[in-house]
Model the fold of this input.
Amino acid sequence: MPRAMNRPFNFSAGPAAMPDEVLAQAASEMLDWPDASGKRCGMGVMEMSHRGKEFLSIYAQAEADLRELLAVPANYRILFMQGGGLAENAIVPLNISALKADAGGRGAADFVVTGSWSEKSFAEAGKYCQADLAANGKSDGFTHIPDASTWQLNANASYVHICSNETINGVEFHGLPDLKALGSRAELVIDFSSHVASRPVDWSRVGLAFGGAQKNLGPAGLTLVVVREDLLGHALAICPSAFNYQTVAKNESMYNTPPTYAIYMAGLVFQWLKRQGGIAAMESANIAKAELLYRTIDESNLYFNPVRSDCRSRMNVPFFLRNESLNDAFLSGAKEAGLLQLKGHKSVGGMRASIYNAMPLAGVQALTGYMQAFERSHG
Ligand SMILES: *Cc1c(COP(=O)(O)O)cnc(C)c1O
Done:
């Protein structure tokens, strides 16, 4: 696909690249938003009341498109919130940690720690409930997902938390655990911030999913929550009203002012995703991009990726130069070649290429071409 604006390829982990077409459309609608029939309303989306008919139509379309794209069943609610993934680390236990607790008892939740993000979720939840470690991949530097048969599951846990794609460590669940088959009655909670809409979700295994929008859905400021209806209404008394899922659901995400412009932008991304052929088409494209990049890394003598091949992320690909003294030269050459934001997260170092939905195959081809040329000239 030709690029609408001849921009460099942006490999940021988040906030991340948006599709050119979406940015161009938003620019053309910035001052005066047209409805579906093309009729202009005299206002930009940022200037609209969230309760006016114009914004309500934007909201309804975004919700319906997302429900269709992710095949969200009718008994799950879609909430558009604020606070990001980190706030959800508190909001989830505030809402559902007491789900299976005996009356008066303190709720409990289990955590499968496979990288930096699930580690943070585990630490935060302990403020609101009994948080237990079911498994921890830290001892091997977060390069694999502990097999579900080894997880230490608490019979009283209300939920089991996993981060289904670890953005920093590049570890992804390529299938969601079946908690019932593991003998657990807990709900599965997934933090899918950095791979939502990159692949289908098996909702039969999920009670609640949350994610910040700024990786793969739109701009920062919007947080997506998808929650099965029967999990609503169990919040702790101390749960802030604006973060009570039941309150948010009852008010169609308008208990307080939602992040209107971010919802509009995400809505444009949802329409773009539909034009690309939906999630199945995105998944095929993402597999092709990831395979090309990992193959290039594995076949080289300069680069390596430490993650076990069965749980390597299709979205976030950390890689290292065996000669770390070449890191700065690699990054400055990449920038000159129009390949931006490849520096790895400060906690792991090296490089990281985030190749979300908006990254075309041509971007990954440009990156792998650059990596091979760099290796030849520095090998
Ligand atoms: C980015 C990210 C977060 C944090 O999101 P914020 O919006 O900064 O709070 C949480 N979880 C995962 C998996 C992420 O990638």
Observations:
- Residues 278-299 form the longest helix (22 residues).
- The chain has two domains: 45-273, 278-378.
